[in-house]
Amino acid sequence: MQPVLVIKDERFALHLEKIPHLESPKRIKVINAVLNDPSIQGKWAGVQAREATPEELAWVHTPEYIRTVAMSEGKPLTTFDLDTQASEKSYEVARLAVGGVFNLLDAIWNGQSRRGFACIRPPGHHAEPNKAMGFCLFNNVALAARYLRERYSANRVMIVDIDLHHGNGTQKIFYDTDEVLYLSMHHFPSYPGTGNFGEVGVGKGEGFTVNIPLRKGQGDEEFAKIIFFLVNPLAQAYRPDMILVSCGFDLYQNDRLGTMRVTPEGYGLIATFLLGVAEKACEGRIAFIMEGGYSLRGIRECGLRVMQELCGVSGLNLKKIDKIVTSSPRKSPAISKVMEVQGKYWKVLRSQ
Ligand SMILES: [Zn+2]
What we know:
This protein is of the alpha/beta class. 37% of the residues lie in helices and 13% in strands. A hairpin with a 5-residue loop joins strand 3 (78-79) and strand 4 (85-86).
């Protein structure tokens, strides 16, 4: 098996280095330490990060907004909103996160390996074209989708957002286009307030935004079922060139901002189902891009399980998988509702 490609760079710890914050530099130190776990040694290979250019950032963000973030450079503290700040090196680090993902996509697209994991911060999915929000400066995953189009003329990219929170920024950026199929499962109502069933896209983008708002307290099986009964058929129908995963670790049962009950084993299940989806839909091409997650233990344990699945070192309970794939999707109110709302656009969801 080809090694899993990984973006790992100590410099991601330089954002908010001296500022007490939930989105702390310790998060990157923890995920970097996971990569040293004996179970995955020799099964992954590092890819160098680089800084994205302002021209590249402008695929998604307005020039005015990019300048505003750039002005934070060298200043001890710049405040964008109540949650979102920058320190001296944040602009550089945020561009390194975006450029790191670009390099990862190059390596996957060129066949070096089909699976990648970007251990980056700051996260990105809340960042809007002209606004920093929810700890996010630049929208890493949205820029990644644009990169595939600009650099490789990819026609279709699927983004699966498994962060606890809705990716309002990603949704907004692709709301009116069919070039990206954006699917998000998240706690609702919760921060940032968007992501209800009826938000399905507009114009050419109608049916290309799929929201799965969930009540608090959902566990491993509910999320695995969503991947199996919704993400999978949609991916087979859409046939993306690549799948990008907005991979938050805040579904973890003891997350500091958390409301869900997902265990490390559950993250393993989610990852393995997503790998299966990518195998069938796009020859296995998939990149996991780190978003939120505010329990260091959660990042450590869930991050390790995700990496183990990517590396093909599975510790999964096959009975648990069997139970999920043989269950009835209609028993889940959220899945049932999505089938009803999105069945209008996706024939594949009508037949189940
Ligand atoms: Zn989150």
